[in-house]
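TICKET: design request
STATUS: open
ATTACHED STRUCTURE:
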């Protein structure tokens, strides 16, 4: 696999690296030994004839998701495949490409994207990340303005294809509900009723600035204007908002710290609980600690 083109970063799982790569006209799941990078096994996912020139596909970080013994693999080529982790066999394959996308530009039987069709600033899904939980997997392909939900084990439809509208990424499942973050609002879809339960606009006409942080009962969303806003996952109500010194971006949590990664800055913030604990510890050591008292 020396000539393989890796489509995204590997997923580390139980001492193995799971990657999706193009190799000799195929898109394959490659499983590597992290010690030496040697391939342990692989499984073909789909054909990618003609897709090597697809700049929209190459611009995305395509990585698998593992849940309940199933490896779900986006391909960026109009299909999602699931591989059984135990048997290493293809479990199901779902094609979602539109008729127009499948047609493409046919030359010699292969698909070639139209030259100049790639726009890095186009309004689309932010990434190909799949969300899997409780036997369901939510799929939001970047190359299509749709999203849908499948049964993780069988690939059978749970929620049919729906238009993306203004969604930028799927934040996650809350029971049988799907929470989607858009450019100017966050909204919740009831999977069983196939209807929007609530749709909450961002405060003060703010716009989305990055990936949110999934919390126990709420969702912390980074917004323009150096703003962090926390919304209830149950009702969509704005719980609180705060303004920080630096522009915010994608949010992460590590050892009770809040980490923000924007286009220009990486910043780390104390959470309230951690700050309170730190102050109490410092005052216990020195009750006249001026920094802790302030």
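STATUS: resolved
RESOLUTION: sequence designed for all positions
ATTACHED SEQUENCE:
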């Amino acid at each position: 696999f020396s000539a393989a083109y890796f489509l995204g970063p590997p997923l580390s799982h139980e001492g193995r690296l799971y990657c999706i790569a193009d190799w000799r006209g195929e898109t394959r799941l490659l499983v590597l030994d992290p010690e030496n990078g040697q391939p342990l096994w692989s499984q073909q996912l789909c054909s990618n004839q003609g897709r090597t020139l697809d700049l929209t596909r190459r611009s995305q970080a395509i990585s698998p998701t593992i849940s309940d013994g199933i490896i779900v693999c986006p391909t960026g080529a109009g299909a999602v495949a699931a591989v059984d982790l135990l048997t290493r066999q293809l479990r199901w394959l779902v094609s979602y490409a539109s008729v127009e996308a499948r047609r493409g530009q046919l030359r010699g039987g292969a698909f070639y994207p139209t030259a100049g069709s790639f726009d890095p600033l186009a309004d689309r899904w932010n990434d190909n990340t799949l969300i899997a939980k409780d036997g369901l997997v939510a799929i939001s392909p970047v190359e299509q303005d749709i999203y849908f939900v499948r049964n993780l084990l069988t690939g059978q439809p749970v929620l049919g294809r729906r238009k993306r509208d203004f969604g930028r990424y799927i934040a996650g499942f809350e029971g049988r509900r799907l929470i989607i973050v858009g450019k100017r609002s966050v909204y919740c879809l009831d999977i069983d009723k196939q209807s929007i339960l609530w749709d909450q606009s961002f405060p003060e006409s703010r716009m989305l600035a990055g990936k949110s942080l999934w919390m126990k009962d709420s969702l912390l969303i980074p917004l323009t204007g150096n703003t962090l806003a926390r919304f209830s996952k149950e009702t969509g109500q704005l719980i609180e908002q705060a303004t920080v010194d630096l522009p915010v971006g994608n949010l992460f949590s590590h050892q009770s710290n809040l980490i923000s990664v924007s286009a220009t800055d990486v910043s780390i913030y104390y959470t309230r609980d951690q700050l309170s604990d730190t102050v109490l510890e410092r005052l216990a050591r020195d009750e006249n600690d001026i920094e802790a008292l302030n």
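CLOSING REMARK: The mean pLDDT is 87. Helices lie at 55-58, 99-103, 272-285, 290-293.
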